[in-house]
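ok so I'm stuck.
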Amino acid sequence: MGTEPPAEHDAGDAVRRRARPRSRLRRIARTAAVAVLALAGVLVVLEGPRVLGDAAERSDLAAFYERPEGAEDGAPGTIVRSEALQGTPAGARAWRVMYRSTDLAGQPLVVTGVVVTPLGAAPAGGRTVLAWGHPTTGTAATCAPSRGFDPFIGIEGMRMMLDRGYTVVATDYAGMGTDGPDSYLVGATAAHTVLDAVRAARSLDGAQAGSRVVLWGHSQGGQAVLMAAEEQPDYAPELQVLAVAAAAPAADLTALVRSHLDDVSGVTIGSYAFPAYASVYGPTEPAARLDTVLTPAAVEALPRMNRLCLLAHLGELHRIGEPLVGDFFRVDPTTTEPWATLLRENSAGSRAVAAPVFIAQGAEDELVLPADTEAFVHAARQRGDDVHLRVLDHATHATIAYLALPALDRWLDEQQV
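replied:
not stuck anymore, here's the structure
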């Protein structure tokens, strides 16, 4: 309030920082945790009814995530169950939803998430839907954002999006919230869960959701929404993607993994990603086994790490992961098959995107490096994509999505969405 907006500049002025201290993920998560706690404090003061409603909903929370018999039987985007939430953002109504989707091979999935929409009459044709892709919270079912005490607090820019008149939908991704296959950084599966969340919102009475869609995601969620934009014409042609926005997206997985082969961030990301890839691709690709890419010590540590959520259990994650730095990868997965191909296939950028794209990058980001994002943007522009890149001075991986909101708000105005 009353302060100047964060400095921002084009890609040509970006600061390329390559220093990679082993504690970067700890700093990122601590910064994010502090931000979440600060926001929670604001909510207690300003949105007491929301907090009281959140507390009231905890008593039977687990029952919602138990999949009923026949839950997978139905078209992608149809709702298995829903429940109205009591702890809603001001001026809005909201629901927790369980809905159907598909994995990269077209097999049925059941996914959970939340939908929130402003009160009042919707415009003709329904509200534009903002589909949010959240950054990494973990891979265990209990790490799902919709299962949190406040299932909305992690939707970065939610208030701005509601004020713009959007219905907001936020998927948990497959394998989180309710039982399902691991999908961490499995691009097509993540894309389907994002697009089917929009379909679910459209079929939910009271959500007022139309067919016009804006995609917005951070980090892991940036990969999800970029892939959703690529998949939408074939997978969900009835939807109209008007704009795509991503903050520090995990767009080029080869670059991301290569940048963190020798630090604790690589251990943490790898502990989530490679078990997912082995489980998804292993049945058809015999060499996609964990023992071909990770050391025995790493494989032994995976079950303990995969039970932990990123923010809630960061200290324990690092206690397990730090001794594995330098002894986690058996080979370089960015140059060793089949892992090199799997990283490439699950990266964004294989197809042109028709909608305009906004990319926000923090100059101080030590996880998704500025140079890697600039290279992705350059390649996208070479394909003919309309990409607007904003690099914000002093923004880190944890803060970039929030600090980019003023620029994103202006850009959405320019796109007339």
